[in-house]
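Sample 1 of the test manifest.
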Amino acid sequence: RKEVEQDPGPFNVPEGATVAFNCTYSNSASQSFFWYRQDCRKEPKLLMSVYSSGNEDGRFTAQLNRASQYISLLIRDSKLSDSATYLCVVTGETGYSTLTFGKGTMLLVSP
Amino acid sequence: GAVVSQHPSRVICKSGTSVKIECRSLDFQATTMFWYRQFPKQSLMLMATSNEGSKATYEQGVEKDKFLINHASLTLSTLTVTSAHPEDSSFYICSAGIRGGAGHEQYFGPGTRLTVT
């Protein structure tokens, strides 16, 4: 089983649509969870952390289900600029734990 | 703040030559730097973790004699790909952890695209 699994997509949605991405992870001891965004041929950039209580940042909502080892990202009112690959990332147990990246889910928002 | 630079951004080299990639934290001290590699349509894979002044810790399957890492100061780490071959062509990305920051906090450089001909 891969450590972090994501549907590669692409998800093709029109502007204004709501889209949701899911991710599962295999290490039950993982402590920290993130969504990163990676534009084509660029480095990944932190989009948001994911907390057990769920968290929202503008149009973006992240949820974590530890029991199911499942993470989600919801994007509302999609913009053209949201087109990118969204990476699900988890850490190990403590400290400068290594970041384990999923392959990413590609989102394409069209006019 | 928390800017990480990499140099060069793109390099093309001949098979058998060595290539050095620099990673610098510009406005903060990075006690730990990480080197990743990403092949097309694949996830970022951690190659090694380096702590300033000590030897790097390599991930399983990464040859330490081929990928030489030096982390001589709190703001600079280098990765040297020795005797490069076409299969080493990839996108190499470094990241830096802020000294005193949250354990998981990493800032990524813009990456170096290596093509070996």
